[in-house]
């Protein structure tokens, strides 16, 4: 499948850990199993949280494991003009609106409505600044949000979005009630992850997104933005998570240790095991080739 284009998109808020390597290896193997292109994109749009030098160290970590981008590495911090152009298109269609709410405002509105907090402590936006509800009403604009109701009405979209995941199977989410009108540009002027990743995936021609299962919940929001901006929908495959001794997902936020790459093959074998792939005792290149063959049998290349 020569048209296949995949990517691995780490955030340089810390170095790669064991969970990161699982996602990196899976995305690389899926690209190789399709005879496709594998890209690395540095998602450094949240610059205040990025650590100096971390992006370059991540690229070195990947190279030590034999995982090297097939094209020049793209960095989100260079992409502000592209994100603004996408937001301008949504504003022009009246599918995005300014919001003056703080988190405290949202929490208070939800409390008054009797709504329960769901989805891992996220606050479901109640539409307080939505144009159909009167807009800002004198509040100072802080952020920009997607108007899901207006978008869905104009495009005739169903309330519940359905899609398929190559590992998890049939998926669905009613974004309007389970998430609400989500942020496209933050109150601090930084670009929101959802808009940035959708614009970048489209402009890089990404056909397949292979990433950790913790990001599966983002898929519906990103599919909505793809529809709004007229982008094609990639295929999705979300990989198993690596958890610590406390049962929680390894992450930079909870202090996951950086990868020990004194023996790259050992680190890759641990990642491969989490993906259900057999151990490899050969050199790095042969091990990657063996896992590529096994991957094609485990996760048949997408049609």
TrEMBL record:
Annotated motif 'KMSKS' region, positions: 249-253
Residues at which ATP binds: 252
Concerning InterPro entries, the annotation shows: Glu-Q_tRNA(Asp)_Synthase, Glu/Gln-tRNA-synth, Glu/Gln-tRNA-synth_Ib_cat-dom, GluQ/Sye, Rossmann-like_a/b/a_fold
Cofactor(s) for this protein?
Answer: Zn(2+)
For the Glutamyl/glutaminyl-tRNA synthetase class Ib catalytic domain, which residue ranges apply?
5-280
Q: How is the cofactor bound?
A: Binds 1 zinc ion per subunit.
Q: Which GO terms describe its biological process?
A: glutamyl-tRNA aminoacylation; tRNA modification
Q: Cite the binding residues for Zn(2+).
A: 99, 101, 125, 129
Under SUPFAM superfamilies, the record lists: Nucleotidylyl transferase
Which keywords does the record carry? Aminoacyl-tRNA synthetase, ATP-binding, Ligase, Metal-binding, Nucleotide-binding, Protein biosynthesis, Zinc
Binding of L-glutamate occurs at 7-11, 43, 193, 211
Pfam families associated with the record: tRNA-synt_1c
Q: Which GO molecular function terms does the record list?
A: ATP binding; glutamate-tRNA ligase activity; zinc ion binding
Tell me which GO cellular component terms the UniProt record holds: cytosol
Motif 'HIGH' region: positions: 10-20
E.C. numbers: 6.1.1.-
Entry function: Catalyzes the tRNA-independent activation of glutamate in presence of ATP and the subsequent transfer of glutamate onto a tRNA(Asp). Glutamate is transferred on the 2-amino-5-(4,5-dihydroxy-2-cyclopenten-1-yl) moiety of the queuosine in the wobble position of the QUC anticodon.
Record-stated family: Belongs to the class-I aminoacyl-tRNA synthetase family. GluQ subfamily.
PANTHER family in alphabetical order: GLUTAMATE--TRNA LIGASE, GLUTAMYL-Q TRNA(ASP) SYNTHETASE
Q: What is this protein called?
A: Glutamyl-Q tRNA(Asp) synthetase
The gene for this chain is: gluQ
